Amino acid sequence: MTLKVSARRKVGRTALELPVFGFGSAHIGELYGKVDEADSQATLNAAWDAGVRFYDTAPWYGRGLSEHRLGGFLRTKPRDAFQITTKVGRTLHRPSDPRNFDRSPWAGGLNFEVNFDYSYDGVMRSYEQALQRLALDTVDALVIHDLDAGFHQDKQAGYEKQLVSGGIKALEELKKSGDILAYGMGINTNDALENTSALVDIDFCLVAMPYTLLDQESLNRGMANLAKRGMSAIIGAPFASGILVTGSKGPAHYAYGKAPPDIQTRVRGIEAVCAAYGVALPAAALQFVLAHPVVASVIPGAARPSEVIANIASLAAPIPAAFWSDLKSEGLIVKDAPVPAGS
What we know:
Layout: E1 8-10, E2 17-19, E3 23-24, H1 37-49, E4 54-56, H2 65-74, E5 83-88, E6 90-93, E7 113-116, H3 120-134, E8 141-144, H4 149-152, H5 156-176, E9 182-187, H6 190-194, E10 204-207, H7 222-228, E11 232-235, H8 243-246, E12 253-254, E13 257-258, H9 261-277, H10 281-290, E14 295-298, H11 305-316, H12 321-329
Helix pairs in contact: 1-11, 3-5, 10-11
């Protein structure tokens, strides 16, 4: 399978078509470390010059910093030359004590407090705030962000009720009016992919962790349900938040934390097969998720120009069919997982 950055796929049953490769902007919101302005702009320029025309961001990324940086760049480009998605469910507000404000978990970012709100008014305000930070008058799609029990604990049911009774109506109105072409839900867990995403009628799921080269538990459950519902997936964390780039000997970030021993063992197994075939681990990770028929696009992050260029090269790197067969025979990916055709 050889894919080009410009190749496009349809999103669900909507009029929206997205490039198979996009730019995830959490890193320029200073996820794992501070990124100075020059590096941020150089990274965005490198992506544009390499043909990237799809960008994803969120109010949460750097507490507004990612949207500011991305919008400041994209507002200089023709609006019909790119596509952009951002997220709803959080509004940003001035903290009561800016001097002592804790920006964690962001290494840098901006001084804005977060308020979760999935109601009709909350979704509309989140959307309007995002447009102002982006300095754009339209986005192509909106994503319901982090409606996840891991974030909300005993408040989860209340937020779900807000979405079902109000927030989804705001998204339906924005789509009907032509403000957006599609709307979806960001997903962090297998349970959310299977159950939370079924609370409302949406066009796609932005799947962060539940479907990667390291985890296919969702294959015949959540991902299969997307296919049955005529929905697409955008893969938001193809490198499982880092370990599928750095490998087992690097910082070993997995699911936005330290990789547990069983994950590191699995990565070492995949690395051995990669070494046998001369395949780079990031190339295997990117191409694997794009082989699933419901996946419309993949949006790896980058904080430096070299990372963008490496990701794009991984998209087109040749990988023989025997590589995927060996991963299956060694139990490193599930046997019925879709895989790319061999190069």
